[in-house]
Amino acid sequence: MDIIYRTAKLDDYTEVNKILGESLELHANALPSMFDNQMAVLSPEQYQATLYYATIDILVAQYRNQIIGASVVELKYNPPTTLAPLSYTAYIQYFGVKKGFQNYGVGKGLFSATKQWAVQKGASDLQLTVWAFNEKARAFYESLGLENLSYLMTTSLQP
């Protein structure tokens, strides 16, 4: 497959949101109290604003004239401390590959493009969140060399 990895354009909105929506549906099915699959992942206004910020980008994988993957990545500032100098972390907010194109190396290529974006922006590391139920995603990211940094634990306070 001849895939192009590039920064999203304004007219990619519908296709990008469909891909991110597939991920949202997976999360809403597993955690319906936390995710609503009836809404757009990014509103048109949020999408447009994202394209104009210098510290956030949407990267896409394009096959022929079709968007088949999307990565929303943001550069976050880490203030200096006595133990570490000022640094930046690239944080992947959303990442997905369209059903039917998974397991063909598209995600691996898109992740590589995301890492390259992070390096060009001066990030010292790349982070993302994987929900505990999503073993497929965790295995994918571990195969790319990512390591578990922490566990976020929760308990309901509702009766």
UniProtKB/TrEMBL annotation:
Organism's domain of life? Bacteria
Ranges for domain N-acetyltransferase: 3-159
Q: Which Pfam families match?
A: Acetyltransf_1 (PF00583)
A GO molecular function assigned to this protein is: acyltransferase activity, transferring groups other than amino-acyl groups
The protein depicted here goes by the name: N-acetyltransferase
Organism of origin: Priestia megaterium
